[in-house]
Amino acid sequence: MNGYFITGTDTDAGKTYVACTLARLAVARGYRVFAFKPIETGCAAGPAGDYVGTDQEQLAVAAGDWQRGPLRGVYRFPLPAAPLVAAEAAHSAIDLALVERTAREGAAQSHASFTIVEGAGGWRVPITSDADMSTLARLLGLPVIVVARTRLGTINHTLLTIEAIEREGLPLAAVVLSQRGEDDPDAAQSNLHQIRRRWPGVALILRSNASVLEGLLPSLPSGAP
């Protein structure tokens, strides 16, 4: 697979916004995109009695709206909690092997030239009794993008997440601060400066201009459309 695993410093950090922006940018640049959030919690009940993953749907649409069935998401739970907790509340369990297999088969069968897998919550959010989001990232073997807020607390949360990822020896591609309309732009720039001062990798702010993510797009494979 060619792409990224997107994690966050916390829930609601802006992972889906960044993932969707990157997916739309890649589609516009000619990539065949597979954008996949395998596990979502806090899902609302759908008309057929099932559950709808809003983030999963947004990602699939951003990738071109071609994904069907489990390629739009494997697990959906109603409780807004960590995947392990939400699965237990639904008297269910998450099969990480199934998640990994669906991701790999979805990318391969669709001939995706760019794959985005979005985690749920932050890096240490539990998925099963003995696995967390870092476990899934290791299974998939994709470089990691960390998404963080631009508000107070971001420096600490981001640097701790960076330390955890690098300690496990996983490739960290970038840190993206997701700036919302109501966020103070001066505070955002200050947070970015402090993170760059402590970490030499790629760190940037995403507001509304998708082009800032251009550098994260790899070269298209030879023969791609």
Please describe the structure with a list of short key phrases separated by commas or semicolons:
225 residues; two-stranded parallel sheet; alpha/beta; six-stranded parallel β-sheet; Rossmann fold; 12 strands; 7 helices
Task: Characterise the protein shown here.
With 225 residues, the chain is of the alpha/beta class. The chain has one domain (3-214): P-loop containing nucleotide triphosphate hydrolases (Rossmann fold), CATH 3.40.50.300. 36% of the residues lie in helices and 22% in strands. It contains 7 helices and 12 strands. It has helices at residues 15-28, 54-62, 83-89, 96-109, 133-140, 154-167, 185-198, and strands at 3-8, 33-36, 39-40, 44-45, 51-52, 75-76, 114-122, 126-128, 131-132, 144-149, 172-178, 203-206. The strands form 4 sheets. The protein has a 6-stranded parallel beta sheet with strand order 2-7-1-10-11-12, sandwiched between helices. It has a two-stranded parallel ribbon with strand order 3-6. Helix 6 links the parallel strand 10 and strand 11 (172-178). Helix 6 (154-167) runs parallel beside helix 7 (185-198). The model has no long low-confidence stretch (mean pLDDT 95).
Quick recap:
The chain is an alpha/beta fold and 225 residues long. Helix content is 36%, strand content 22%. The two termini are 17 Å apart.
Shape: globular
CATH architecture: 3-Layer(aba) Sandwich
CATH domain fold name = Rossmann fold
Give the quaternary arrangement of the chains: single chain
| Binned strand content | 15-25%
Q: Quick one: how many beta strands?
A: 12
Number of domains: 1
